[in-house]
Amino acid sequence: MNSYVKKALHSPSFMVLLILAILLVLVPIFAPQLAPHDPLETNYSASMVEHSGEYPLGTVQIGRCILSRLIWGGRTSLLIVFWVVAIVAAVGILLGVIAGFMGGWVDMLITRLNDIVVAIPSTVFVIALVSVLGPSLRNTVFAMSLVGWTEYCRVSRALVLSVRENNYVDMARMGGLNEAQVIRRVILPNVFPYLLVNITQDIGANLLTLSGLSLLGLSSQPPTPEWGFMLSEGRKFITAAPWLIIWPGSVIVLHVIIFNLLGDSLRDILDPRYEKPIKKWRKLKQWQTVE
Amino acid sequence: MANSRMISRVLALVLCLSIALMGAAFAEGKHLNGALYWFGGSLDAAADWDGWTTCRVGITETLVTVNENYEIVPLLADHWEQPDDTTWVMHIRDGVTFHNGKSVDGEAVKKSLERAMSMQDRAVSAAKIASIEADGQNVTITTTEPFGAFLANISEPMYSIIDVDAGTDFASAPIATGPFMVTGFEVNTQIDLARYEGYWGGASDIDTMTILMIDDDSTRGMALQGGQVDIVQRIAWTDIPTFEADENMQVFDTQGARTRILSFNYENPFLADVNVRKAIAAGINYEALVGVLGSGVSVAGAPYPASSPYGYDTLDRQTYNAEAAANYLSEAGFADEDGNGYVEKDGEELTLTITYSNGSFTTMLEAVQDMLKQVGIHIELLIVDSTSELGENGTFDILCGNTQVLSTGDPQWYLDSFFKTGSANNVTKYSNADLDAVIAQLAQTFDIAGREALTIEAEKIMLEDCAAIWMVGENNFVVANSKVSNITPYPIDYYFVDQHLTID
Amino acid sequence: MKKYIVGRVLFVIPIMLALSFFTFALTYLSPSDPITLKYERMGAVPDKELVEAEKEQAGLNDPFLAQYWHWLQNVLRGDLGKSYFYGTTVWSEMTRRIPNTLVLTGATLLLTVLLATPLGILSAVKQGTWVDGLIRFISFFGVSMPSFWVGTLLMYAFGVKLQLLPILGSGDLRHLVLPAATLAFWMVSLYVRRVRGSMLEEMNKDYLTGALAQGMSRRRVILKQILPNSLLSVITMFAMSIGSLLGGATIVETIFEWKGVGKMAVEAISVRDYPIIQGYVLWMAIIYVTVNLVVDLSYHYLDPRIRLGGRR
C-alpha cells in the first residue's frame, strides 16, 4: 500500500485531479457559505433571468437562483451517488470475496445471482422499482443499489481467486490466521486498490444514471434542488431559456469527467499493466529496426 | 499507413450514409401536418375517451355541438323540440352522408347511439337515455328522468354518429360524417386522413392530413419550430412568448374550462374550519401565479371561467389578500407562538400536504407553497402516481388536480360529481344541504336563463363556503405556422380541426 | 453442438418463469391500478362504479396467485393478453415496437463497429501522441455526458435551429439520424476506450516478442495477433451492450418519441399496464438467452480452444 501512496504523491496529474475532486465535494458541504441565495427563495419579479449581477447563472421560472440551486443540489445528487456507490461496493466486494474464497455451492449461488441481475435491463428495472415504491431519495438509492453491485462482485471474485493462488494466503493460514482474518488481513488489502478504480468511476456512472431517472420524474421531491431534476425541468424550457438545461448539464458533466479522470489516473498508478506497453512496444520497435 | 487507409474508408462510408439520408419525401396536393398530445387506443368514438381524438381531427360529429361562446348549436341535428320533460324529438339535417356515401337518417343515428350505450356505462349515465325511436329523418329520444343537461351532454364525442353497418373496423377505419376520413391509423403514433368530398358543410380545402402523437409538450413545440408539423394543440406555456415573438408563428389562446383546483379533505380537522380554507384562498397570489406560469393560464377564483355565461364578474371571487388571510387564521385561533414562521393552534402547527400526480404542476405548487409560507401556513408537496386511490381512502389533506368544469359546455356535471353529498367522485366528503337543493333543481330546469341563474346561485354557495380553491384556468392553445389559416379557437379542447382550416 | 444450442434455448423457460413471477409480484405491490391510471392520463374523471366494473372484468380484483396462474395459462396458449392502456393486444404492440428498436439498435451498432474499432486501434497504436490524446479527449466527453442532455441539445441544434433533420418520430432514414447519433456518441466513446484498453493489455504480452523475433512485420503482428485477441475480450461486453440496446434505449427513445420497446416499457410501468410489462419481460428473456448463445458460439468460432459452455 505504501508504495502506491508514494507513487500517487509523485504523480502530478493524480494530485491535481484529487484536489479538484475534493473541491467538488467541498462545494455542497459549504453550500450555506458559498451560495449567494437561499435555493428555495423565490423572486417573482426575476423570473427566468438569463444572468445578472445578482443571479450569475440566471433564475428559474419562479425566480430561484440557479447557481445557488446547483450548489445546494450537490447535496442531494452527490449524497445519493455516494450512498449508492458505498452500498454497491460493500455488498459487491463482500459477495465477491465470499464467493471467491469459499468456492463450491456458495460460489455457484452468488455467481448465478450475479448473472441474473446482469440480465435485467437496469434502467427499466430501477424505473419500475422506484415507481412502484414511490419516488424518494431512499427508494432511489435502494433501487440503484440493487442492480449496481455485480461488477464489484465479479472483479473481486476474480481478484480473490488470483490472490489465493499466490502462496502468501497459504503462508498466512500456516501462520495461524483463521478464515475471517485471512480475508481481512490478506485478501482485502490486496483486492481493494484495484476496486478503488471501479469505485471512483462508478461515481460518474451513477451520476449519469441518476440524471436519466430524473428525466422520468423519479428522483427527489420538489422543491429540493437536485441536478437531474433541474436538468429535466430545464428541458421544458429549451427554446425559451436554454441556460436552464445548459448549466445543470455542465455541472453533471464536470463531475463525471473529474471522477472518471481520477479513476483513470488511479488505475495508471495501481495497475502497472496499463502503463508499460508503450515503453515495451517502443523497445521492440527499436530492436526491430536494428535488425 | 494501414490506419490512414482504414480511416479514409470509414469516412467514405459515413459520407455515403449521410448522402443517403438526405432524400426527403414530398407529398402532393395540400397537405397539413398536425400534432396532438394524446390519442386513444382506437378511433372508435364510442370506446373509452377515444371519441375525443376522432372529434379533434374532424372524423366524427355529434348531433349538436358547443361553439366558441359555450353555446349549444345544431350540427347533425338541425332543429329539435321537447314535447315533455323527458322527450326530445331531433331532426337530422337533410343531405348529410357518411364517408361511404350512405345518407344519414334517424335509423342510422339510433343504431349509432345504441351502439355507444352498449359500449360503455358512461354513455348510459351521461345522457340518461331510456329509449330511442327512429322515424324518417327524426329521432325521438326519451330520458329516464327530467334531465336538464341532456342537450349539452349529447354533444360529448362518445355520442358521435358513425355508420354501424359499414362493415369496416370500428377501431381503425370508422365510417363517420366529418370533413375528414381515415386512410391510415397507427396506435399512439399517427393518423392519416383525406378530405371527404361529400361533406355536408362543404368539402375542406386540404387534400390530406397527417396527425402525429407527440406527448411531450416541449418536443411538440420543437417539432413545430423545426417545421416537422404545421399546427399543434397545446405547447409548453413557457414557450408561448417565444412563439408569439416569432413572426412565422400564430398563437391562438382561449380561456379553457379546465381549471386547476385545490380540493380539501373535509375530514381533516384543520380544513373543516371554513376560516382555514379562506385563509389559504386569500394567501395565494393568483396574479403572481399567472405571472410565473406565463400566458398559459388565467386567474380563476370562481368555479366557472370568465368566458362562460355564469356570472364571473358579479361573483365575490377568491382573491389575494395577505391581511385577510392573517385575520382568518387568527379568527380560527391560530398564531405563531414559537416564532418559527408557521402558525400553531393548541401547540399543533398548521401543516398540510398538497398531493398531486401531474408533474407539470410542480412549479405552480412550489410557488403556492412559498406564498402560503408568507402567511404562516406550512405546506408540504407530494407527487404520486395516482391521486384517485388516495381520494377514495381519504388519505390526503389537499388534492391538486385540473378538472374540466364545463364538460360538454354544461355546468351540471361538475356540481353533480364533486359537490353533491355522497356522490361517487366527491372524495372530499363535502356536504352542503343548500347546494344539494340547488343541484337538484338544476337537473329539472331546461330553459337556458333558468339554468344560468341556478348555476350562479350554486357558485355563490360554494364561494361563501370556500368549498375548494379555483386557482387558475388553463388556456387552450392552438399554435400554427404562418402557412395555416382559418383557425377557429374553441374553448373546449376536443374541438380542433374543422372544415374551414386551410394551408398554403 | 445441436444439443448444446437446444439446451441453451430451453433455458429461456426457467428464466421467463422466474422473471415474470418477480415482475408480477412487483407490480402487485404497487398501490395504483391500471384502470384508474388510464383515466387519469386522459384527464378524465370516471365514475367509481365504472372503474370497479372494468377492474372486475380485467380480473384485477382476483387474488395474486390466481392472476398469475391465469396469465400463465393464456401465455402457454399463445395469448399474451391485451394492454389495459392501449387497448391493443400485447402481441400487436410488441410486433409494432420491436422493429423500431431493431432499426435503432442496428444503426447504433453499425456506427459503433465502424468507428470504435479503427479509432480504438489507432489510439492504442499511437499511444501518447496527439492523435491518441484527441481521441481519448473526445471519447471521454462521450462517456461523461447524460444521453438525454446530448439528445436534447442535438435536437435543438439540428432540428430547431438549423432545421436540417426531423426531431422526432420513426419514419424514413432522416428520422433515425439524431437518436442513432445520440446513442452512438456514447457507444462509440465507450468502445474506443475498451478497444484501446484491451489492445494495450494485449500488446504487453510476452508472445509478441517471439512473434517479432520471428521476423513478422509490425502491421502483421497488430492485425493477426493483437487485434483478434483483444477483440475477443471486448466481445462479451459488446454482446451485453447489444442486449441492453435491444431492451430499448429507454431515455433516448423517450426524448425522441421513438416508438420502441424501451419507451413502451417505461410507459407501461407508469400506468401499471401489466400485460405489456410481462410481454417486455418475455422479450428481455429471449434477448438474454440469444445474446449469451451468440457470445458462446462466437467464442467457439474465434478461438476453437474454448469449449462450448466453458466460458466463465
List the helices and strands and how they pair.
The complex is a heterotrimer of chains A (about 290), B (about 500) and C (about 300).
Chain A: H1 2-9, H2 12-29, H3 31-34, H4 66-102, H5 104-119, H6 122-133, H7 137-148, H8 150-165, H9 167-174, H10 179-215, H11 227-235, H12 243-270, H13 277-290
Helix pairs in contact in A: 2-4, 2-12, 4-5, 4-7, 4-8, 4-10, 6-7, 8-10, 9-10, 10-11, 10-12, 11-12
Chain B: H1 2-21, E1 31-36, H2 51-56, E2 64-66, E3 72-74, E4 77-84, E5 87-92, H3 106-119, H4 121-127, E6 129-135, E7 138-143, H5 150-153, E8 180-186, E9 190-195, E10 208-213, H6 217-225, E11 231-233, H7 240-245, E12 249-264, H8 274-283, H9 286-293, E13 297-299, H10 322-331, E14 344-345, E15 348-349, E16 351-356, H11 362-374, E17 378-383, H12 387-393, E18 398-404, H13 412-418, H14 433-443, H15 448-465, E19 468-481, E20 484-485, E21 502-503
Parallel strand pairs in B: 1-10, 1-11, 16-17, 16-18
Antiparallel strand pairs in B: 2-3, 4-5, 5-7, 6-7, 8-9, 9-10, 11-19, 12-18, 12-19, 13-19, 14-15, 20-21
Chain C: H1 2-10, H2 12-29, H3 34-41, H4 48-57, H5 64-76, H6 90-125, H7 130-144, H8 147-161, H9 173-203, H10 207-213, H11 218-246, H12 250-255, H13 261-270, H14 274-302
Helix pairs in contact in C: 2-14, 6-7, 6-9, 6-11, 6-14, 7-9, 8-9, 9-11, 11-14, 13-14
Mean pLDDT of chain A: 80
From the spread of the alpha carbons, the general shape of chain B counts as: globular
Rounded Rg of chain B: 26 Å
User: How many strand units of chain A?
Assistant: 0
Computed CA radius of gyration of chain A, to the nearest angstrom:
23 Å
Element pattern of chain A in H and E: HHHHHHHHHHHHH
Tell me the distance between the termini of chain A.
41 Å
- Please summarize the sheet with the most strands of chain B: 11 strands, mixed
Portion in strands of chain B: 15-25%
Based on Cα principal axes, name the global outline of chain A: elongated
Helix content of chain A: over 70%
Total DSSP helices of chain A: 13
Oligomeric organization of the protein chains: heterotrimer
Structural class computed from helices and strand pairing of chain B = alpha+beta
Which spans of chain A have pLDDT < 50 for at least 5 consecutive residues?
A: 284-291
- Percent in helix of chain B: 25-40%
Secondary structure class of chain A reads: mainly alpha
**Largest sheet properties of chain A:** none
